[in-house]
Amino acid sequence: MNKAMVFPGQGSQSVGMQADLAAEFPVVQQTYSEASDILGYDLWALVRNGPAERLAETVVTQPAMLTAGTAAYRVWLAAGGAAPEQLAGHSLGEYSALVAAESISFADAMTLVIRRSQLMQDAVPAGVGAMAAVIGLDDAGVIAACDEASIIGVAEPVNFNSPGQVVIAGHKEAVENAVNRCKDAGARRALLLPVSVPSHSSLMIQAGEQLQEALAGADFKTPTMKVIAATDGKAYADTDDIRSRLSRQVHSPVQWVTTINAMISAGATGIIECGPGKVLTGLCRRIDRGTRATFIDSMDSLQKALLE
Fold first, then answer.
1. Which of 143, 119, 123, 108 is nearest to 34 (CA)?
2. Which position among 200, 201, 251, 252 bears the catalytic label?
């Protein structure tokens, strides 16, 4: 089977994640220890015990998800899993994909992610921004609702996750207005998400520009495997391209449907979600029902993924 691997981003974290894998594979806690040394606090203790509210803070969630994705990939290799032929990550997950492709060290990626999370957190004052998920309305309907709501502030589609599932972001008042317009247009569900950072919206342009300095100083290498950028579904060309896209990624929509279709068109017959949860697995199945999608977040799911 031609395997592809995808890494989740913010939203897939949970208190107690990866405990099952950590009990069997020392590399999990080793990875969290590496992260803790850089962060200056015990990340594994926070992941294991919570509180969930602290884990959900952008400046904590992003380093935690980079660590979780890297730990899951190291478990996969330790268990005898073969290196995938293609990699991609949903938003922050691209950093885990680049670590897996040996384009950047885990330590250097962590330093970048710490900077990225702080810039995004500081870009919009708490309570000013918002994100919302819209389910059961086509892309055109969501785009139209955002356009209409934009008369009172920024409201933009920022994650095209699967057919009938789009996330919007921007100023809270405008996003709330767009949510109501989506409901009026026939959306099955449209609800605000428990985050205040309007990720991937134009409100993050300054954060992306400020991230450029950190990216310019990072030691990137040419990836050993094909890494697909989720902003357009195209493979990274070289290290300059990586730096440029990671900067723009902060304020560009995640084109997940395009990304998964590109991986399938390039020959992927099986897609493995490498990290906690199974959000991306569900999205992959909705994007293309003929593609076998599995995930790695426990010993049971690891064994199933190894047998695929």
1. 108
2. 200
